[in-house]
Amino acid sequence: MTTPNKVIVSNIGNRSLIYSGEGGPLKSIEAAATIKGKTLPKTGYRNDTDELLKLAQMDSQILSELRINILDALLNKKCQETSHLYLIVSDQVEENAQHIKQDTLHAGKLIKLLIEQNEHYKHIEVAIITYQNSVVDADKLIPFYREELSKLLSKHKEQTFIICDSGGTPQQKTSLKISAEYLIPEKQVEYYQIIEQVNDEGEIILGQSGFIKQGNYEYRKIIDAQQIALLIHNGNYEAATFIYDSNDVIAKQLRATSLRKQLLLQDARNIINGTRDDKLFSSLKTLKSKSLGNYSGKEGYFESEHFNILAETLSVADFFYGLKELNNAVLYYHIFMEKCLNALISKQIPQYNLMDSETYFDNSTQLCQYICQNNLVTIFNGRPSNLTLPVKLDYVQSNIDNTNEQLSLCLSYFQKWIRANFSVIRNRIAHDGIGVKGSEINAVSDNFHTEVKEWYKFFGLPKENIYIQTNKEITRALKFE
Asked: Is 124 part of a structural domain of the chain?
């Protein structure tokens, strides 16, 4: 004999229990006016089944007039393998009267009694799980199923779950399956859909149900797509790539976007350059161009390569700022400020290239000496000991052609940020792991939002952030993939 090792979980709906007495055709409880001469209230499914339960507790023969419907097909086939059965019923204590009339609390108790008196099912332990909110509110249903399934997983760690995808409202069915897909390991769960027979007129024939085992691949794809959409919304492209677990063109572009956000632009381009243009998201085609921003008119201030890295850095900062991810926003705006000053200086005096990380230390040391020797800054009496941000800004504002009014205005914002200890806030995040508050950003500048947008405008970046564009394209592709 097979050792029972499966756990069935099923919603109970209004057709899960039917009336079979008096030799007539099977009827739904709602269609039965009397049972064994006892008149039912006929004020809704909840009250009718409540009355039936009271009658059954006084007269066990009442149960002989009732039959399990829908679930019986699965029970008949799986009873020898099943050790536990969990019936999910509704008892909507805060819902409107119309929905309360359809509650299945008492029907579940009657089904439990029918199973317990059946010799074939006596080894099955039956329990009722009660849901007390709206049966059509997915925002309440999903947390409920998630919590209850978590409890069952803890109790039945080694057993296989059978999810009966029938019974209850459409919202209950969907919420149960979504929660099961999310929580229960794939190898530990099976899904079955009950198929009710219909007559030539399209009416359901009660008591004649079959079932089919459902695959979960397509359903899993939908769940994964939803998770990926949430991850990319917050810029977690690497995690999204892991969940997508494929090597198709979408996966490659997810990976390229992850590399782009890490400012590993050449690595991102290597992926994009190997992808046909007609398969590329429009937003990622910008990686093939020389710059994400508008380089026209900026040639005298930045090398094109430097301008591009600045445009990409500013886009990442803007993306995080739009998400109100202030820690990352501060880090990337600070990186942008440093790189922008380095790029401006490197364009004017390329022999002291500050954009090459490998030679930065030597070049910055030599540049600081050059500045002191030629009295090129006013700060520190023209004799700075290190090439700090204030020194770089002083040099740029004092020595680089300031005929571009928009650039001069934007550089004045850097001056404000530096004086307001923007670097202190950045260092606290980077070195001490202490987060930044919105009030601290306001202390740097009460017009910070406007100022960063002015820089965004100066670089000619797309009105809609490039990562927002990419996210929309990925989400759209996943829906039709």
From this structure: yes
